[in-house]
Write a structure and sequence with these properties.
The protein is α/β, with parallel strands linked by helices. It has helices at 21-33, 55-64, 68-81, 92-98, 115-124, 137-151, 176-184, 200-207, 227-230, 235-252, 261-264, 267-270, 302-306; strands spanning 8-14, 38-43, 84-89, 104-107, 127-131, 157-162, 189-194, 212-216, 273-276, 291-294. The mean pLDDT is 97.
Length: 329
């Protein structure tokens, strides 16, 4: 499902449905059409998530919430549309519910220090993605230890480099942290959760080694004044991003250094082989100075020449004549 050698692309719908179930289904339709591997939502019981005294936030998230039954229906709809469903839980109760309907979990940057949630999800033994926004490297190491203590060798863990600023300026995303995380956690998949505007950053993240790309996704950037719409990609631009990433995967290829089939037609024309560096007499002993290596490589290579050095020449050889094994005793 999530592999180091294939980029896993997540359309982060989040709360861009704004509590409208039909919009959530349309987001699934468009994410599937755009080529995303998965679509992700956010699931919460607002009373276990936001302090009611923060009236503006509480009312907004209350309005945007979908019921557990609706999320179940969305998970089934994703199966029909052949796209992976998962959702980020923002409370323990929601995590327990989601464990019944999804195979991947994501912990947001806002909760990557919420140890009770990390421990609970770690015990589900499903692939766990954790965003690293707001954390130092040492903080991230502590998160790793919590998961590792519960899961042992069967880690199934991914860390996403993330900058928790909305939107993030391109000159602040520090994609070099992708390699830093890889260097410090060799048994963890590393990806990028993007909050920049546009498609540049995800493409560069893939080139920097990210194997997961999470990008906010909306039906329309002007859907409403809710912040996430403006920093999301609409279906047209999300598809452009997907195509760019798939092209980058093809260009990057695989870590397997061999002479490719398409190169082999040039093996003779571009390689060198042994020729006489001067006129050589019959009965003469072949020395290294008697050899010059020239294109094409249709004759003996260096390894083959070493086996005939010191042998007697059976025939006279003119300068620049290709050297053959049959010329020596």
């Amino acid at each position: 499902m999530i592999k180091k050698n294939n980029v896993f692309i997540v359309a982060e719908a989040g709360n861009n449905h704004e509590g409208d179930f039909s919009v959530a289904k349309k987001l699934i339709d468009k994410a599937s059409e755009s080529g995303a591997d998965a679509i992700k939502f956010q699931t919460y019981d607002v009373d276990n998530f936001i302090d009611p005294k923060l009236q503006k936030s509480y009312k907004k998230f209350k309005k945007f919430s979908l019921s557990y039954e609706q999320f179940y229906k969305l998970s089934q709809y994703c199966k029909k549309k052949k796209i992976i469903f998962f959702s980020t839980p923002f409370d323990l109760k929601s995590a327990i519910f989601l464990n019944k309907i999804q195979k991947i979990f994501k912990i947001s940057s806002g909760d990557n220090n919420f140890t009770d949630l990390i421990k609970l999800i770690s015990r589900f033994n499903k692939h766990l993605i954790i965003s690293s926004g707001l954390l130092s490297l040492n903080d991230l190491k502590n998160v790793y230890k919590v998961v590792k203590k519960i899961r042992g060798k069967n880690l199934k863990l991914s860390f996403l480099h993330c900058v928790s600023s909305y939107p993030t300026p391109l000159d602040q995303i520090n994609l070099s942290n992708i390699s830093l995380i890889k260097e410090n956690f060799n048994d963890v998949n590393v990806g990028f959760s993007d909050h920049t505007i546009g498609t540049k950053a995800p493409l560069y993240a893939v080139l920097a080694g990210a194997s997961i790309i999470e990008k906010h996704f909306t039906l329309d950037n002007k859907f409403s004044n809710f912040r996430d719409h403006a920093l999301s990609l609409n279906p047209k631009n999300f598809k452009i991003m997907v195509n760019q990433i798939r092209d980058a995967e093809n260009i990057l290829g695989e870590k397997r250094k061999i002479a490719l089939l398409l190169e082999r037609k040039n093996l003779i024309s571009m390689r060198r082989s042994a020729y006489a560096s001067r006129n050589l007499k019959k009965g003469q002993i072949l020395r290294r100075k008697d050899i010059i290596y020239l294109r094409p490589g249709s004759g003996l290579n260096e390894e083959e020449v070493r086996k005939i050095l010191g042998k007697k020449i059976k025939v006279e050889l003119d300068k620049s004549r290709s050297i053959k094994k049959r010329y020596f005793k």
